[in-house]
Specification:
globular, SH3 type barrels, 24 strands, 612 residues, alpha/beta, eight-stranded parallel β-barrel, TIM Barrel, five-stranded antiparallel sheet
Length: 612
């Protein structure tokens, strides 16, 4: 069958203007798209010049052109130098155990977020990392207003929206032929309801919108080999997406955005091209080259065909916290997609990278630094920064690109299948550890001026025990073999072991069976996890003999400051110090330790978690 399809494809290629697998040219169905389509992306000098000019224009602003001017107040104002926040934990502290010696640090002269460098001549505004939350199921639908309100109230700056291709097309997305009369580049036939709800709801609240346009899951007919999707089955087909079809899909997205007058803060394409769930090919090398082509085609589709001025990001890749070698799985896709390390791979020279290698005009590098501890998270971000700077020296990327954490979290439940997403057996932490690690990880990354955004996936737990990492528990029901139905917050779902529902622990064997598994289901948001308060008001404490350093972030702050309180042996809390913060809400102070045994931050009537 595959040979027959390839033979048919070769005939189509010989008799049409299509240059992609078994794609068929749309001819005059969309004259603008047909005129702009060009698959020789490496030698598209006109488009390369246009991309470069647009990037230069965006760079003349700052990385976040709709963020308020931070002003002259330096971040972390204090009269004393800050110790390393990864210093030894005090008694009772939940801190990452690993030694961080040798971790790459910012180059000499790097500035702290919000501060200015005396040696810099840049006119761009300085800023710290913005906060992104992603939760597509809960930011659309009938309860989206309440959940977007909560995201805004706890200090999020932006939401990330995933535009799932397979869910937007008309007809049966598992069909191997495109619906008759459907023109992929025209937005009219797509289903934009959820997307519009999220974008309009976010912008109404002053939240920025970051859009990712994955290649997979895609409609089967958009694959170069649709029969592979049928054979594979499952939730996602990501096998060899046709370049023209993906570019047409991105064109439709851009045209819809332009027609609606939406302002999108940033864009990324494909999503996690290095793990296989969202992009697949016969080898990592071919996958990297496919990602490169898809990225260039999507970039052009937004800028030229759709007429959208776009701040676009490269990579958006998943983490590999276990290896800091460029040639390791997951990391190597980054270099291969940029046509680096040619001397190490003869295949790159033979078929995938031309003599003249076009620079990727990306405004930033997106990354998903999932990790077991804040220390590992930091290590991988600095390692990525090293790869980015090496690529810039080879003129594959512009210099000094920012690092944007567009998806990240510490998981409180990880199922067996999560290993496919790169999760180590030790990745899951307790809900209390999640809160501690979230604050400590933010502090470590916020020190790096190259880190321009931090992220939280997601607002509400999935409640399936496979990838729970939200700020709010999922609420649902568990049916028991006894006939009883238990409802409440899913505190922890350990697949194959037990489910903690409210204050009850239900053994796996006691749960009623249903086709395909056990009979339990999350129906919506529940109560706040410890991470909810930790996200809204972050705190990290380092003990230094008879003193203690308290770092904090009131995420919804605008420069008003917060108050540090201490817990004393009497059981009473007392105010210790008022701390001035910058407009991003960051502040720190070194204070006498005294008799205090724990510390917290008070801001606007709200309290942080208790740090010991």
């Amino acid at each position: 069958m595959r040979k027959l399809l390839l033979l048919v494809a070769s005939v189509v290629l010989a008799s049409s203007t299509s240059i992609s697998g078994c794609a068929v040219a749309e001819g005059s169905q969309d004259e603008d798209f047909d005129r702009d389509w060009k698959d020789d992306f490496e030698n598209d000098d006109e488009e390369a010049a246009a991309e470069g000019a647009e990037t230069e224009e965006l760079d003349s602003l700052d990385d976040l052109d709709d963020v308020e001017e931070p002003g002259a107040t330096p971040i972390f104002p204090t009269e004393e130098a800050s110790p390393d926040p990864e210093g030894g934990p005090g008694p009772g502290e939940e801190a990452p155990p690993e030694d961080l010696e040798g971790v790459l640090e910012p180059e000499d002269g790097a500035t702290t977020p919000g501060s200015t460098s005396t040696g810099s001549t840049s006119k761009k505004r300085k800023h710290g990392p913005i906060s992104i939350i992603e939760d597509d199921p809960h930011f659309s639908g009938p309860a989206s207003d309440d959940r977007l309100d909560r995201a805004k109230a706890i200090g999020a700056d932006a939401i990330r929206v995933m535009l799932w291709w397979k869910n937007k097309v008309p007809g049966d997305a598992t069909a191997t032929t495109k619906p008759e009369g459907f023109v992929s580049s025209k937005p009219d036939a797509y289903n934009w309801a959820d997307f519009d709800t999220q974008v309009e709801g976010a912008r109404a609240r002053g939240l920025k919108v970051f859009v990712t346009i994955p290649a997979g899951p895609m409609p089967y007919w958009a694959s170069e080999e649709p029969e592979y999707c049928v054979k594979q089955g499952g939730w996602s087909c990501a096998w060899k997406p046709q370049y023209r079809e993906y570019a047409a899909w991105v064109t439709a997205v851009g045209r819809h955005v332009k027609d609606k007058g939406y302002r999108i803060w940033g864009w990324s394409f494909v999503n996690e091209p290095n793990i296989g769930a969202f992009l697949k090919d016969e080898s990592s090398l071919k996958l990297a080259h496919r990602y490169r082509k898809l990225w260039f085609h999507a970039r052009k589709a937004l800028r030229k065909t759709a007429g959208v001025k776009a701040r676009v990001f490269f990579s958006d890749q998943a983490n590999n916290q276990h290896s800091l070698e460029p040639g390791a799985d997951r990391w190597k896709v980054f270099n291969q997609a940029l046509c680096l390390d040619l001397e190490k791979d003869a295949e790159l020279i033979k078929g995938f990278c031309p003599e003249k290698k076009r620079r990727v005009e990306a405004h930033g590098i997106a990354f998903h630094p999932y990790a077991a501890t804040p220390g590992n998270q930091k290590k991988t971000v600095y390692f990525l920064q090293k790869l980015v700077d090496e690529a810039a020296r080879e003129k594959r990327l512009p210099k000094n690109r920012g690092l944007y954490m567009t998806e990240s979290a510490f998981l409180t439940a990880r199922g067996a299948d999560a290993g496919k997403l790169g999760a180590a057996s030790s990745l899951a932490v307790t809900p209390n550890q999640q809160a501690v690690y979230m604050n400590k990880g933010e502090r470590l990354l916020a020190r790096n001026p190259r880190v321009k955004s931090l992220s939280q996936y997601e607002l509400v737990d999935e409640g399936r025990g496979t990838w729970d990492c939200g700020l709010i528990y999922a609420n649902g029901f568990v049916k028991l073999k006894s006939g009883e139905t238990v409802t409440g917050d899913f505190k922890v779902v350990k697949l194959g072991r037990h489910i903690e529902v409210g204050d009850r622990t239900i053994p796996w064997a006691d749960i009623a069976d249903k086709e395909g598994g056990k009979d339990f289901w999350a129906t919506g948001p529940g109560g706040e996890k410890p991470a909810y308060a930790a996200y809204r008001i972050a705190i990290d404490v380092v003990k230094m003999g008879d003193r203690v350093e308290v770092w904090g972030l009131a995420r919804a702050d605008t420069g008003a400051g917060f108050t540090i309180e201490g817990l004393f042996p009497s059981g009473e809390w007392h105010e210790l110090k008022e701390v001035k913060t910058d407009v991003l809400g960051y502040g720190r102070a070194v204070i006498p330790r005294g008799e205090a045994t724990a510390w917290r931050i008070r801001f606007g009537g709200e309290l942080s978690r208790v740090a010991r």
